[in-house]
Specification:
This protein has 236 residues and is mostly beta strands. It has no helices and 19 strands. β5 and β6 form a beta hairpin.
């Protein structure tokens, strides 16, 4: 398997916290609270923690995981929200990681508290020889006449669309995506297409039959096969 190198960026979105506890003061004030973001190697997972002197700067922070190949734009591959103690974690998806936490602004009346930016140390995740990069596949099914669960006519027009995600860009760009139907009058392959550079794909059909539909990626060197959740089409 060809080895590839990438880095994972984690950002934490900024949200105002309703009902934040603001120390009493004689008048309006602005305060800044330093934030520390940690990251640890836990084998098949990695995890970390958002730390600050202010509890409002640690809990319920949105952590977004990005994969980035040299010379390419970052691609989101997962997200988590820190718990009441600032802890967060992700499944193992690559080989080099560092985390970034953006500023978070908390406003209440004339008071403004700012939780400051921080970046964690970099931690290596060496991939074992022959190991394949995980692939995630999302699919959404839309039917023209009514919902897909209660379609109003046979051979209904419909659209399948979604996105392929992986820490290895070679597992995304141009990846084959196949739609398969189980059950109904004609089970088997329905159609196929290729994902674009950002992993997005779409298939339009005007003759969908009853059954359970699912998307599946084709095989690719160094990449695991991805499967979407199932969608059911049933006529009223």
């Amino acid at each position: 398997m060809s080895r590839y190198r990438h880095k994972i960026l984690l950002s934490i979105a900024c949200f105002a916290v309703a009902g934040a506890v603001v120390p009493a003061a004689a008048g309006a004030h602005n305060r800044e609270f330093p934030t520390t973001l940690t990251i640890k190697d836990k084998g098949a997972r990695f995890k970390g923690r958002v730390k600050s002197d202010s509890d409002d700067c640690t809990k319920k922070r949105l952590v977004i995981l990005y994969a980035q190949e040299a010379g390419q734009d970052p691609m989101e591959v997962g997200r988590d929200r820190s718990d009441e103690n600032g802890r967060w974690k992700f499944e193992f998806v690559g080989n080099h990681y560092f985390a970034e936490v953006g500023e978070k602004v908390i406003k209440r009346g004339d008071h403004k508290h700012t939780c400051l930016f921080d970046r964690s140390p970099t931690t290596p995740f060496p991939m074992r020889a022959g190991e394949k990069a995980p692939t995630k596949l999302r699919m959404k099914m839309e039917c023209k006449f009514g919902t897909c669960e209660k379609a109003r006519r046979a051979n209904t027009p419909g659209t399948f669309k979604g996105r392929v995600r992986s820490s290895n860009p070679d597992c995304v760009d141009g990846r084959e995506v196949k739609i398969v139907r189980k059950g109904g009058p004609a089970p088997g392959p329905v159609d196929s297409t290729e994902a674009n550079e950002s992993g997005r794909w779409q298939i339009e059909r005007d003759d969908l039959l009853e059954g359970t539909y699912r998307a599946k990626t084709g095989r690719a060197p160094g990449c695991k096969i991805g499967k979407s959740k199932k969608w059911t089409l049933a006529f009223m």
